[in-house]
Amino acid sequence: xxxxxxxxxxxxxxxxxxxxxxxxxxxxxxxxxxxxxxxxxxxxxxxxxxxxxxxxxxxxxxxxxxxxxxxxxxxxxxxxxxxxxxxxxxxxxxxxxxxxxxxxxxxxxxxxxxxxxxxxxxxxxxxxxxxxxxxxxxxxxxxxxxxxxxxxxxxxxxxxxxxxxxxxxxxxxxxxxxxxxxxxxxxxxxxx
Length: 192
Prior knowledge:
By secondary structure, this protein is mostly helical.
């Protein structure tokens, strides 16, 4: 089984940059650990990441968005709003998870009420289950909106856990990328 030269070349070229995936994995793992053990510091880091992303997106939108007339004006306005949002997120890091919690609460509240109305109105197959689901979702939404700080804390913990898992996966993947050319050599030697 001969590997195509283009695949071999791609694997060898990718293997040269295995260390980038390793560094990203280590940073992600470290960020996740900070989020779990020092939520306040993790909250600031998260605010910087989100804020810088919004500023970058705003700049891209303002300079590369719509090319003519109204679409250009709209692109600039959207860009300015994104940049302003990024600056606010960076300068007020405690609000970021709180706003996320409130948005989740509002979305769940609207979704729950919508399910309740749809299940009662339609009364088709499974309507009772949708009604129960809508009532539960509405109750959870009300709890989130009553205690958004607690919800924000849980969101930060979940982000930390996700970052740790992602970091571990990226670290393992980096070594697999590094060993890619050796794996191809073994495949080629053992092929009939």
